[in-house]
Write a structure and sequence with these properties.
Blueprint: E1 3-11, E2 15-16, E3 19-20, H1 23-33, H2 37-45, E4 57-59, E5 69-71, H3 72-86, H4 102-109, E6 110-113, E7 116-118, E8 126-136, E9 139-150, E10 155-162, H5 168-177, E11 194-199
């Protein structure tokens, strides 16, 4: 039996944009992942003309009124990451450990709506610059990464539909994990961590 819950996420830490501002990079990457050409054009258009000016920067796509948003699949990606990690807990008594082939379950039985989830907050969007270090054959390389940043306290509301009501406890478990590991870029530093509540 299907069960739908509506949730509100509230950021405990600022969240960083994940979409490359360079339209060509984004188009080439999404073009290899998108199911059809219409999806590519829709997502590239959501970046806006100003966003494509800065190479190497990550941004949030914007609604027509300029409001930043997340796509539904970014929430599903978070669910997959949370399920993968939580299923590794030693006692195997959590809900995530009970789901076999969790990626297929999340892709085919758990749905997030709307497609574009507005991120609501007061004030201006910030900027986060940080060094990226990588070990290469030529030695350590350091570069500077820059991202749009929405502040702590920002909220997002969306619906989660579980075609099997038995998956609802796992979804709640994944949302609880958001206070430890969040959404967006640089999650390992604590960025994008959130609390949640069921509403409506």
């Amino acid at each position: 039996m299907q069960k739908k819950i509506r949730v509100r996420l509230t950021l405990a830490e600022g969240m960083l944009g994940t979409t490359p501002a360079n339209e060509t990079v984004y188009r080439d990457f999404i073009g290899t992942k998108a199911p059809d050409a219409a999806t590519v054009e829709e997502e590239v258009a959501a970046l806006g003309a100003d966003a494509v000016a800065e190479k190497g920067r990550t941004v949030f796509p914007r609604l027509e009124d300029g409001t930043p948003f997340l796509y539904d699949y970014q929430i599903k990606g978070f669910f997959k990451d949370a399920c993968s990690m939580l299923s590794r807990i030693g006692d195997k008594k959590n809900e995530s450990a009970k789901i076999k082939a969790y990626k297929k379950v999340i892709d085919g039985l758990i749905f997030v709506a709307p497609r574009k989830i507005p991120i609501l907050f007061d004030g201006e969007m910030g900027d986060c610059q940080r060094p990226l270090r990588a070990q290469t054959a030529q030695g350590e390389r350091v570069s500077l990464a820059s991202s749009d940043a929405v502040p702590a306290g920002a909220t997002m509301e969306f619906d989660i539909a579980c075609l099997d009501e038995g998956h609802v406890p796992a979804v709640r478990e994944w949302l609880d994990y958001g206070i430890l590991r969040g959404l967006g870029q640089w999650r390992n530093s604590g960025k994008g961590r959130f609390t949640w509540e069921e509403i409506g």
